[in-house]
Structures are given as C-alpha cells and as structure tokens.
Design goal:
mainly alpha, 79% helix, 0% strand
Length: 425
C-alpha cells in the first residue's frame, strides 16, 4: 500500500468539531474549487443520463418483448464491452490528458443517444438496435469512467478528496430523484423517444462543462516509453500484489453482480407485481435516489471520518438485507421505504469503496485501479442475464430475494473473515 496516499482519509472531526464543520457548510467544501465545481456540474448531467437511460431502455425493451431475459441480455452488451476494455481504458487514462478523453467520449455518447432517439421517432427501432446501443455505450464508458474517477484526485487537494467523492454521490442522488421521476412522466406523456432526446441534451451539458477544466496531462510517475500492454500487465500485477485492493475490488464485484441487477428488473416489477405504468416506475426508481441523496449528504458532512472499512461492510450487508425485504413486501409505502434504504446503503458503499481505492493506490496507477473498479460496476448487467432467465421462470420476486440474500451473506462473511478491511480508516 502506498503510505503517502494512505494518509489522505485519516483523522475525523468529533463532537463539537463535527458540528462546526456542518455549520460552516463544510459539507460542500470541495465546491469552493472552481475546477471541481465544473466537474461536479458535469457529473450531475452524466448522472441524469445514466438514470434516464436505465429507465427508458428497460421500459422500451419490456414493452417490445415482455421478457425479463431480454432485459438481461440487452444490458449484457454493456458488461461484455466493459469486461474487454475497462482495463485498457484505465491504461489510456494514465497515458493521455484526461480532459481530452472526457470530451471525445461524451461527444460520442451524445451521437449514440441521438441515433436511438431518431430510430424511435421514426418507428424503426428494433431490439438489436438497443443491444448495439448498450454495447457501444459500454465501450465508451470503459474509457470515460476511469478518466472521470481519476481526474478528481488531480483537481482537488488530498484533504478534500473524501468530500469531493461524497459530493459526487450527492449529485448522483439528486439526479436519481429528479431524472427517474421526470423520465417516467416524460415516457407516459410524450413517449420514450422524448427521454432519449433529454438524455442527449444532458450529454451536451456534460461535454460543455469538461471544456472548462484545465488540461491535466498524464500521471507524473511511470514513463510512457512502455507499451500499452506492458502498462496493463503492470497494473494487474500492482493490484494483485497489494494487501488491500483485491478485497476492495472483490466486494465491489459482489455488490454489483448480486444486488445491483435489481435496477434491470424494475420495469418487470412495476408492471407485473405493482401494476404500474411508466410514471409509477419513475416513482419506484426515484426512491433509491432519495435514500442515496440523504446518505451522501450525511457522508459529505462528516468530513474525513474514521471507520470507512466498517462503513463498507455494514452498507453492503444493509443493501442486501433491504433488497431481500423489498422483494417480499406487497405494499407500496414499505416498498418505497425499503428502496430508499437500498439507495442509501448503495451510495454509502460507493463512497467508502471509491475513497479507499483512491487513497490506497499510487498516483501513476490510479487510472488502472479505477478502471478495474469501474469494470466491476459495468459487470452488473452481466449478472442480469442468468437472473432474467430465472425471473421468467420463477418470478421477479424470487430473483430479487436471491440476489439480496446472497449479497447479505457475502458481506456478513467479509465482516467476519477480513479483519484487515474492517480496520481500514
């Protein structure tokens, strides 16, 4: 572990000091930095595209096919490209200017989204178009996400890194509430094409904000004389030889493969279990956003708190248990409350995991480490593929219960048998 980086998230305000931080708006401290403000606004727009895209694609696929398996295999295109290219994307993020990489990938995402919107508007849309769109989106995100994650530590001071990561989660929560609710009503009132046009508009906003950032150059250490493949091998060896990184990445993989696929099956759950239309689906999808927003605001206000390893384990266990309960509750109000708890636990897990990965990685390896991290999140739709087949046969509630229960067991076991992770600060 890199000891210099390892000190960045140590030391926590306690008692009156924590209250003073809250009163001085330290919750939003990283936003004092002009460059981070632009990055954060862009991340808001990007979060909106993700939330709208998840809802719109899922609704359209289920409308076209009525199949949970189709929901899974269309989403799997993202996973395939993420699995094949995320490590390569991390190497590229370490070798080129991250600002330029963000500009070109967001421009390509805009074009990709507009193409789907036009196909829907003309009535020419077919299932394979959506599968191809998912595949291309995964390719682009394999390059976009490592750069967007790694650039944070280049724009802010190390003592505000946790606050910056937490504010990114705050933004995700805000847009999760807004975009899920709005896109559901958009689809119901104006059709699913309108959601894709709005997505394209948000991509343009995200693109314009990146142009306001300074050029970052490449990481200071590790010359570029070696080949891309040599850099990739070096990154894999570095992660494998570290005492902490494999456990952190393994837990991220567990939560994404077992718990996060619930989002893929929300259209089926909304229609088949709750009898809801697209606007009702929007309400269901907004509930995790509300929980995530509250959770990330609390995390951001705490400053550089201790016990991030314990937070990681508790939030993973909570997400799995909440998902298990959600799958077996038949009433709307407790369903919304449990979905809110799922979102709160998910955001707490992401903040803790993201920060621990960044502060335990050497600067010139950060792009590659974060690419593996993003690859684990990109694999979530791959977990949806077998789950979709099971859902068509045994029901969506069974699949959600299975995923939530297994996730809870994984994190219970990690808490018992990984003391090194428990002690991470």
């Amino acid at each position: 572990m890199d000891q210099q980086n390892g000190t960045a998230c140590q030391g926590s305000p306690r008692g009156p000091r924590a209250v003073a931080r809250l009163r001085s708006w330290a919750t939003f401290g990283a936003l004092r930095d002009r460059n981070y403000r632009w990055l954060w606004i862009g991340s808001l727009a990007s979060s909106a595209t993700f939330q709208i895209g998840t809802l719109a694609q899922g609704w359209l696929v289920y409308e076209l096919t009525g199949s949970a398996f189709a929901l899974g295999w269309v989403s799997a295109g993202w996973s395939i490209s993420s699995l094949l290219l995320s490590l390569y994307g991390g190497v590229i993020a370490d070798r080129v200017d991250k600002r330029d990489l963000l500009i070109w990938t967001r421009l390509a995402m805009t074009v990709n989204t507009l193409a789907i919107a036009l196909l829907i508007s003309t009535g020419a849309i077919q299932l394979w178009h959506l599968a191809l769109n998912s595949l291309l989106s995964g390719v682009l995100f394999s390059f976009l996400m490592p750069a967007s994650q790694a650039i944070v530590s280049e724009l802010v001071d190390r003592d505000t890194l946790l606050n910056a990561v937490s504010l990114n989660a705050v933004g995700m929560g805000m847009m999760g509430v807004f975009s899920a609710a709005v896109s559901g009503y958009l689809i119901e009132a104006l059709g699913v094409a309108s959601a894709y046009y709005v997505m394209a508009g948000f991509y343009v906003v995200a693109l314009l904000t990146v142009t306001k950032l300074p050029r970052t150059g490449r990481a200071a250490e590790g010359g570029s004389a070696t080949s891309v493949w040599a850099d990739l091998r070096e990154g894999v060896r570095y992660i494998g030889s570290d005492a902490v990184l494999p456990s952190l990445l393994g837990m991220a993989l567990g939560i994404t493969m077992l718990a996060m696929p619930y989002r893929t099956f929300m259209p089926k759950y909304a229609q088949d279990v709750m009898g809801m239309d697209a606007s009702g689906l929007g309400i269901l999808m907004a509930a995790p956003g509300v929980g995530g927003l509250v959770s990330s605001l609390i995390t951001a206000s705490l400053g550089d708190f201790r016990g991030k390893g314990r937070l990681l384990l508790i939030s993973g266990l909570t997400m799995g248990a909440s998902l298990l309960l959600f799958a077996n509750v038949p009433y709307l109000v407790p369903v919304l409350l449990l979905l809110g708890l799922v979102g709160a636990a998910s955001n707490a897990f992401m903040v803790a995991n993201n920060c621990l990965l960044q502060v335990n990685s050497r600067a010139h390896m950060l792009g590659r480490v974060m690419s593996v991290y993003m690859m684990t999140w990109g694999l979530s739709p791959l977990g949806s593929l077998p789950a979709g087949a099971i859902a068509d046969r045994l029901g969506v509630r069974f699949v959600l219960s299975l995923g939530g229960g297994m996730a809870a067991l994984v994190f219970l076991g990690a808490g018992l048998f990984l003391p090194r992770v428990r002690r991470l600060e």
